[in-house]
Design goal:
The chain is an alpha/beta fold and 205 residues long. It folds into two domains: 2-91 and 177-204, Periplasmic binding protein-like II (D-Maltodextrin-Binding Protein, domain 2), CATH 3.40.190; 93-175, Periplasmic binding protein-like II (D-Maltodextrin-Binding Protein, domain 2), CATH 3.40.190. It is built from nine helices and eleven strands. It has a six-stranded mixed β-sheet with strand order 2-3-1-4-11-5. Strands 8-7-9-6-10 form a five-stranded mixed β-sheet. β7 (109-114), α5 and β8 (130-135) form a beta-alpha-beta unit. α1 packs across α9 (191-203). The longest helix has 13 residues, at 10-22. The chain is elongated. The two termini are 24 Å apart. The structure holds phosphoribosyl ATP and magnesium ion (MG).
Amino acid sequence: MLTIALSKGRILDKTLPLLKKAGISVAKSELDSRKLILDTDSIDIKVIVLRASDVPVFVQHGAADFGIAGKDALLEHGADGVFELLDLEISKCRLMVASKKGVDLNKSTLKVATKYVNSAKEYFYQQGRQIEVIKLYGAVELAPIVGLSDCIVDLVDTGNTLEANNLAPVELIHEISSRLIVNSAAFNTKYIEISSWIKRIEKSL
Ligand code: PRT
Ligand code: MG
């Protein structure tokens, strides 16, 4: 028996067709149900659908054998005990610093609003820049507009959200895409099963 942890939301929309191509289908009735552990058409595979940031946690602790999560979630979590085996090249975007246009970000202590607290700290500290982090859970783009922060660290795709709020991307922290991760212990004990599914997923990319 294998358990796969999937990120709900936009990554799920891209992941389900990929898994289907690889031979793992989740029926619409399962997805629409309120069940937390979903059956697939493979008797030996179950799927759990989680918040994107919880996928690395479930895989790290072996509650799921493998999973699909955004690189942003992996960077933020640290991904100990987890092997990143495949870049699925879906749900691509960039983790960036953004601010109001023309703002000088070279002040002594920069106020940074973000939900990516660890990634922001690592990025600025590596450059010897001091920051005060303001942790937010959403509407991050609002922070510089209302004077809550000097800048934000957030995901940018088309740039439309920044543009609509008079903000501009200023520094690239990391290119983001979804990755297939596996629990390191499970990868050893269930190597044949897991690697054969991973090969099928890789072929369907
Ligand atoms: O669970 P919760 O609702 O808190 O999270 P969420 O809404 O961020 O989840 P969801 O379903 O959006 O999926 C998040 C995952 O999708 C991330 O972990 C990324 O790996 C991936 N992803 C890819 C993105 C984007 N692209 C993206 N553009 N996640 C979020 N965005 C947001 C971004 O935060 C910003 O608000 O889209 C806005 C920017 O988009 P543009 O096109 O206007 O630049
Ligand atoms: Mg959401």
